[in-house]
Write a structure and sequence with these properties.
Largest sheet: 11 strands, mixed
Number of domains: 1
Strand content: 15-25%
Number of helices: 14
CATH topology: Peroxisomal Thiolase, Chain A, domain 1
CATH architecture: 3-Layer(aba) Sandwich
Radius of gyration: 20 Å
CATH superfamily: Thiolase/Chalcone synthase
């Protein structure tokens, strides 16, 4: 990978912004996922009372109105608020001066699976109980999936392309991949990309309970999410946002920016199999992994770490783990940081890609918390109990989503 003929990366990552149940800020989230033995941010929510899964990972002590201002916050659903806060952190981390940039050469691409669903749900209750005249005129803009991208543009004064990517749990990863493609095509010099999600929705979670995709370990919520464990019984919902500032390497170099990592390859695919379960042979995620690696011009031996989708569902972990093994063989330590953040759906790819960048920086792979007895049917080496050092300068992020979506990113650090 480090030879003279290897292709240079296309997108330089110069800033990170994360808001998650593991911490407010990228550094705080990183500290939690690498040092804690059990998350303390997961527990019951009153609005989920009576459901078989009445708990989720939430972001405590975050005063969004205090950060954004009460008037501005009232015009945003919670997922949008989280995105704007993460965007501000990423911008500060990248040391970008909005007064000096060409705002028409800046893109914002943010993924979300459900957008402002909680606001939509609340207004449906208003309609049912109080009638149409009491429904908010902001239902359409606040519930729309593009709310995060639109509000980030407004907050930062961005006039370039603004896009929302909605591909269920692949949304954040695909948003970063889309931004990577925009930079490669020369459409923009800077892109802010990732995902945001907050689905405190009784309707949605009741439906996912009916799918039997959520853990029902109500007696011990902190231990419920256990990716790759033989006793896993489903995922635990979470909320959050993760955004990356990405630049053309020439642009980053011209302004003397610190380059935290580079995005060197991206691929997306579809299983063309079914709406709920991934293809049993994992053909879609295997194709995405192989294609992203070929684009980055890296081999299995180059890859030191995979931040897996790792949802803690029986089928996903089995199918993804075996696909990773077919592509990488015995190479690459695997982890699932969802064991500390919960499954943040469309935000997961953004948060987890940011953590992958930090893994490359710190040469450290976070453990998969709660993994006690690895499933013997999954032939990959999953990091557990404590963070593991890794010397490689290449890592992969994989994502799978309902509807057969798959995506993979290759990140490198030189």
């Amino acid at each position: 990978m480090t030879g003279p003929n290897r292709r240079p990366f296309v997108a330089a990552v110069t800033g990170l912004g994360v808001v998650s149940a593991a911490g407010i800020g990228a550094d705080r989230t990183w500290h939690t996922v690498t040092h804690s033995d059990a998350p303390d941010s997961v527990g019951p929510l009153p609005e989920l009372d009576g459901l078989t899964c009445d708990f989720m990972y939430t972001i405590a002590d975050l005063d969004t109105e205090g950060i954004l201002g009460a008037a501005a916050a009232r015009l945003m659903d919670r997922f949008t608020r989280l995105a704007v806060i993460a965007a501000r952190e990423a911008m500060a981390d990248a040391a970008l001066d909005t007064s000096a940039w060409d705002s028409g050469r800046v893109a914002v691409v943010i993924g979300s699976a459900h957008g402002g669903l909680p606001f939509y749900d609340a207004q449906h209750e208003v309609l049912a109980r109080k009638g149409a005249r009491r429904v908010s005129p902001m239902v359409a803009p606040l519930s729309a999936v593009n709310g995060a991208a639109s509000n980030v543009c407004t907050d930062l004064g961005v006039h370039g392309p603004s896009m929302a990517v909605s591909a269920t749990c692949c949304s954040g990863t695909m948003a970063i991949g889309t931004a990577y493609q925009l930079l490669r095509a020369g459409v923009c010099d800077i892109a802010l990309a990732g995902g945001a999600e907050s689905v405190r929705s009784r309707l949605l979670i009741a439906g996912v309970c009916q799918m039997r995709a959520l853990s029902t370990r109500r007696d011990d919520p902190a231990r419920a999410c256990r990716p790759f464990d033989i006793d896993r019984d489903g995922f635990v919902m979470g909320e959050g946002a993760g955004l990356l500032v990405m630049e053309r390497p020439e642009h980053a170099a011209a302004r003397g920016a610190r380059v935290r990592a580079g995005v060197a390859g991206y691929a997306a695919s579809s299983d063309a199999y079914g709406m709920v379960a991934p293809h049993p042979d994992g053909i879609g995620i295997e194709y995405a992994l192989r294609t992203a690696m070929a684009e980055a011009d890296v081999t299995a031996a180059d890859v030191g770490h995979v931040n897996a989708h790792g949802t803690s569902t029986v089928l996903n972990d089995l199918i993804e783990g075996n696909a990773i093994h077919r592509v990488l063989g015995e190479h690459g330590l695997v982890t699932s940081t969802k064991s500390m953040t919960g499954h943040t759906l469309g935000a997961s790819g953004g948060i987890e890609t940011a953590l992958t960048v930090l893994s490359l920086e710190h040469r450290l792979v976070p453990p998969t918390v709660n993994l006690e007895t690895p499933d013997p049917r999954i032939p990959v080496e999953v990091v557990r109990k404590e963070a593991r050092p890794v010397a490689a300068n290449c890592a992969v992020k994989s994502s799978l989503g309902i509807g057969g979506h798959n995506a993979a990113l290759v990140l490198i650090r030189e």
